[in-house]
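Subject: design request, 332 residues
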């Protein structure tokens, strides 16, 4: 794509996002890129950027944020009911046709709602963006319509339909999932693999490919251990109120009903911290300011959207490099 054309398309998309969310009562905010705790997701690596005092002294560890999530939730706790942000975020080691180590994330939160309310806002937003950029809902170069409402499919349904596995019957146990995968003719993995390892092996091989090919689909209700910041489903704590959005073969968004129990949140973060250590990854500090304010946060839903991938869909780009003016591949 011509750089000028790419820049103009990005500007139109950003304007459409701001216009839509503003009309629904969302308020745009900015939060710091440099943070004392970047997030604890086990498979995401942050860029370390220590602060070195000008007059001398020991460097203070800081990181470029991988998401503005902690700060956005602190704003919810401080009385901002519908914040949104077009944030530059940073993830170390991620370079592929769908990944760049620096990218744009749209993140928004809705107090008083849950993941269902956020899904409704998000599908309406993407429909409005398609109309603003394309004059309709048909994504160029794909047999895909972005017209709301989008489809919804539980993770358990997806595993049953696409992999022949009854995920609920596995009960979160690696041995059961290994036997179920073997019975379905799939790779059972290695004896020491965890439930998460086996889950994602099946997911990437059988479930994810082709999701949302002709119509965007929300993959909802994830196993509880795979949603460390999400609220569990009332009455069925095996599942978390989390969703991912897929369209045209791309994962576009990850959202959930927010966990507001600070003690439970601390326990989950410490579990992830321990997992990072077992995986040989840096164990980042727990964000104490975030936990201190979390208990005052209202019930809410929130979502993070990869805006560059949305732009790929709306311009027909095959790779993220086509919608970036200076992709990292130029210097890596």
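Subject: RE: design request

Done. Sequence follows.
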């Amino acid at each position: 794509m011509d750089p000028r054309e790419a820049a103009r398309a990005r500007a139109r998309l950003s304007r459409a996002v701001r216009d839509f969310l503003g009309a629904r009562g969302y308020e745009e905010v900015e939060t710091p890129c440099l943070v004392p705790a970047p997030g604890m997701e086990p498979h995401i690596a942050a860029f370390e950027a220590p602060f070195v005092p000008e007059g001398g002294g020991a460097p203070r560890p800081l990181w470029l944020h991988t998401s503005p999530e902690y700060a956005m939730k602190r704003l919810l706790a401080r009385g901002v009911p519908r914040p949104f942000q077009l944030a530059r975020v940073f993830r170390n080691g991620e370079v592929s046709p769908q990944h760049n180590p620096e990218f744009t994330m749209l993140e928004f939160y809705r107090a008083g709602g849950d993941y269902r309310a956020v899904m409704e806002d998000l599908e309406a937003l993407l429909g409005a963006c398609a109309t603003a950029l394309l004059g309709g809902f048909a994504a160029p170069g794909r047999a895909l319509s972005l017209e709301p409402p989008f489809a919804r499919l539980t993770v358990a349904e997806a595993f049953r339909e696409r992999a022949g596995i009854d995920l609920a019957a596995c009960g979160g146990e690696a041995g059961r999932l290994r036997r179920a995968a073997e019975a379905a003719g799939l790779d059972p993995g290695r004896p020491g693999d965890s439930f998460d390892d086996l889950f994602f092996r099946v997911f990437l091989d059988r479930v994810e490919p082709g999701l949302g090919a002709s119509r965007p689909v929300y993959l909802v209700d994830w196993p509880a251990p795979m949603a460390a910041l999400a609220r569990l489903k009332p009455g069925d704590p095996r599942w978390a109120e989390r969703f991912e959005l897929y369209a045209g073969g791309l994962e576009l968004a990850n959202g959930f009903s927010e966990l507001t129990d600070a003690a439970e949140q601390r326990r989950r973060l410490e579990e992830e911290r321990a997992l990072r250590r077992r995986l040989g990854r840096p164990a980042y500090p727990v964000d104490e300011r975030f936990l201190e304010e979390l208990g005052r946060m209202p019930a809410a839903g929130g979502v993070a959207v990869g805006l560059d991938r949305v732009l790929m869909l709306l311009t027909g780009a095959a790779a993220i490099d086509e919608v970036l003016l200076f992709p990292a591949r130029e210097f890596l």
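The mean pLDDT is 96.
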